[in-house]
Specification:
Distance between the termini of chain B: 43 Å
Number of helices of chain B: 10
CATH architecture of the largest domain in chain B: 2-Layer Sandwich
Number of strands of chain B: 10
CATH class of the largest domain in chain B: Alpha Beta
Largest interface: A-B, 47 and 50 residues
Number of strands of chain A: 0
Low-confidence stretches of chain B: 18-34
Helix content of chain B: 25-40%
CATH superfamily of chain A: Formate dehydrogenase/DMSO reductase domain
Oligomer: heterodimer
Structural class of chain B: alpha+beta
Structural class of chain A: mainly alpha
Number of domains of chain A: 1
CATH topology of chain A: Formate dehydrogenase/DMSO reductase fold
Mean pLDDT of chain A: 94
Order of helices and strands of chain A: HHHHHHHHHHHHHH
CATH class of chain A: Mainly Alpha
Shape of chain A: globular
Radius of gyration of chain B: 19 Å
């Protein structure tokens, strides 16, 4: 089956070359970081995690979101997703690979990485995050590959795949829950110290992840003619809409608790994000952009006639993805560290090298995804005679 | 795992003692004369405690004494002098609001308002940093010290997110060039880039039965001892004077007390 990745149109190889080129350029910057340390980033003593860890968090959500297809398809026998399910599983694989990449580029001594296994420490949430992420990667790789192989050979998948699928459904929830626990258990980081963080993570994942999947699928449709089916697009867009409503609702729960209680520790990070804190307003344009995009996407998605219209659906999904990305990929980490333990603000924005190194990981994900989707689509074309 | 590690450390310690007991010829006469290495006898009577703690009498400090204490620590531990937001510090000063933000001070007495406070790792009885470390590179030893294994640290900086006191610093760059060559203390390792470091309550001095360097330099403004021992000097001071801790609501049970 893998041989299907080795033959393709100039456009396919062109895309792979572009990803490789970005990886090469980003890799150059990573070498600089390896040789000089994380001084090349905008990180500091006060804001000690930043862009890398934020992208990691966002991508865990994208990986987990495959469950929004897997659950209805396997638990409720919802056949409309039969063509898309493999795309979701393969997107999850690419997303987890990016997650692992973002962790590797973030740590100061990557050559000691395996210390996490050698000195495994179950009381550390990071240990469990490593377990669930690698487990999820293996689960999706085994399930996705085996199912596709069976489909290619025109057989039903082996019976042992079913228990793995059921496991993967629960596992998907676990990866983003454990990732939220990384943050939600820290005393003194008020923005994260909230029981609803895991729920917020999951809701934002279950709108943004399927939105990315749907956008990429519609892109694949335009490029290759692969049709996921009208019903699938409709259902998935409905899932996205509900999840986004829940996501926005959860955010307002946070705002209520912080501001009605009037607890400074809880209000300060939210003030920092939306109105600035002690004159530091550099995050506010991003956060208000995110807010308008989020509300705007809901305005376009909630009326079903607009939602089912591809000309409106696509821009709405793009707005949703950018909005949730700013929220999680920029705001979440900065607000956890701001104000700092001394109630002061140390500004953080990623540096050029930092963004380039993160792009290297994104390009790696794009590279893996392109190959996996190519294989899936080729197999489908061969079995069905057409896409 | 931990047991065997401790055994190894003990063994390594004994071997080191053996080495230092003999003359280290390769260091040459000069090095030996200038910086005499501790010998086995120096480790014969280590200071012992169940939970080391510290009381800082904030009224006794002025800028000169702050500098003396901070220099004693930073110079001896080869803490690099890096300017800016990627700085490294083990012990430093803050104003009242920065030191005790959860007090939400208002209409503070003038003396306390204008005073500065010496901040360092709290060596919490229930530290969040060691709880989150994925490799046990930072850990609490039998004497209540929160210390670091710089060779095990992977530089994930989870401990920095976990510490509610901002006590930890990360080596964003190679620290070597930021330590003045004439000030390099050959008896203490300097760190490598990509690892976290912090105050250790001078674990290396306690092992020789000595006080931490800042306490030594403070000339009585800082008192050090076993918080679990009712007869210790820290407990005596705490019995007499009202003292507060930083962010007690973080549940970490800090071991550094401040007499205002």
């Amino acid at each position: 089956m893998i041989e299907k990745a080795l033959k393709g149109s100039p456009r396919y190889f062109g895309a792979l070359m572009v990803f490789l080129a970005v990886m090469g350029i980003g890799g150059g910057f990573y070498l600089i970081q390896l040789n000089n340390g994380l001084m090349v980033t905008g990180l500091s003593r006060d804001v000690s995690w930043g862009f890398y860890i934020a992208q990691f968090t966002y991508m865990v959500g994208v990986a987990a979101s495959a469950v929004m297809l897997v659950l209805p398809y396997y638990f409720h026998h919802y056949k409309a997703y039969s063509k898309m399910i493999i795309m979701g599983e393969f997107l999850a694989i690419a997303a987890v690979i990016m997650c692992l990449g973002f962790i590797v580029i973030d740590i100061g001594q990557p050559q000691r990485m395996l210390n996490v296994l050698l000195n495994s420490t179950p009381r550390s949430v990071l240990f469990w995050d490593m377990v669930v992420l690698n487990g999820y990667l293996i689960l999706n790789a085994v399930i996705g590959w085996t199912s596709l192989m069976a489909y290619w050979k025109r057989m039903s998948p082996p019976t042992w795949v079913k228990p793995l699928v059921y496991t993967s459904v629960v596992w998907a929830f676990s990866i983003h829950t454990v990732t939220a626990f990384l943050y939600a258990g820290l005393p003194g980081r008020h923005f994260w110290l909230t029981a609803i963080l895991a729920a917020r993570f999951l809701s934002s994942a279950f709108c943004s992840g399927p939105a990315i999947l749907l956008l990429l699928t519609l892109l694949a449709k335009r490029l290759t003619g692969f049709d996921p089916g009208k019903e699938a697009v409709k259902s998935l867009s409905t899932t996205i809409t509900y999840a986004m409503c829940v996501n926005v609702f959860f955010f307002f729960l946070e705002v209520f608790t912080a501001f009605y209680s009037n607890m400074p520790g809880h209000m300060d990070p939210i003030l920092f994000l939306f109105s600035g804190f002690e004159g530091h307003t550099y995050m506010t344009p991003f956060m208000w952009t995110a807010s308008f995009l989020a509300i705007g996407s809901l305005v376009l998605l909630i009326p079903y006639k607009w939602r089912y219209n591809p000309d409106i659906l696509v821009p709405a999904l793009i707005m949703l993805v950018i909005g949730t990305w700013i929220d999680k990929g920029m705001g979440l980490i900065a607000a956890g560290f701001t104000p700092n333990p001394f109630e002061r603000v140390t500004e953080y924005l990623p540096t050029g090298p930092e963004i380039m190194i993160a792009l290297m990981v994104y390009a790696l994900g794009g590279f893996v995804l392109t190959i996996l989707w190519k294989i899936a689509l080729e197999v489908r074309a061969e079995v069905e005679g057409s896409l | 795992m931990q047991r065997s590690r401790r055994d190894f450390l003990k063994l390594a310690g004994v071997s080191a003692l053996g080495l230092s007991a003999g003359t280290l010829g390769f260091l040459g006469e000069g090095a030996q004369a200038a910086d005499a290495l501790p010998s086995a006898a120096d480790f014969a009577k280590p200071a012992k405690a169940k939970q080391w703690g510290m009381v800082i009498d904030t009224a006794k400090f002025d800028d000169a004494l702050f500098k003396k204490c901070i220099d004693a620590c930073h110079d001896n531990h080869n803490v690099p002098k890096i300017e800016g937001k990627q700085e490294i510090k083990w012990i430093w000063t803050e104003d009242f609001e920065g030191s005790f933000p959860t007090e939400r001070p208002a209409f503070l007495a003038e003396a306390q308002e204008h005073r500065k406070y010496l901040l360092l790792c709290n060596h919490c009885a229930n530290p969040a940093c060691t709880r989150v470390c994925p490799t046990k590179a930072t850990f609490k030893n039998d004497e209540g010290l929160v210390i670091m294994d710089y060779h095990r640290c992977i530089g994930c900086r989870y401990c920095m997110a976990g510490c509610p006191y901002g006590a930890r610093s990360f080596n964003f760059r190679d620290p070597g060039e930021f330590i003045a060559k004439d000030k390099l203390n050959l008896q203490y390792p300097h760190r490598t880039r990509g690892v976290v470091e912090k105050c250790t309550f001078c674990v290396e001095k306690l092992a020789q039965g000595k006080l931490p360097l800042c306490v030594e330099a403070s000339g009585g403004a800082m008192v050090f001892g076993d918080l679990e021992d009712p007869k210790s000097e820290v407990r005596k001071v705490l019995k007499e004077k009202y003292a507060i801790r930083r962010k007690p609501d973080a549940g970490t049970d800090p071991s550094v007390f401040y007499i205002l």
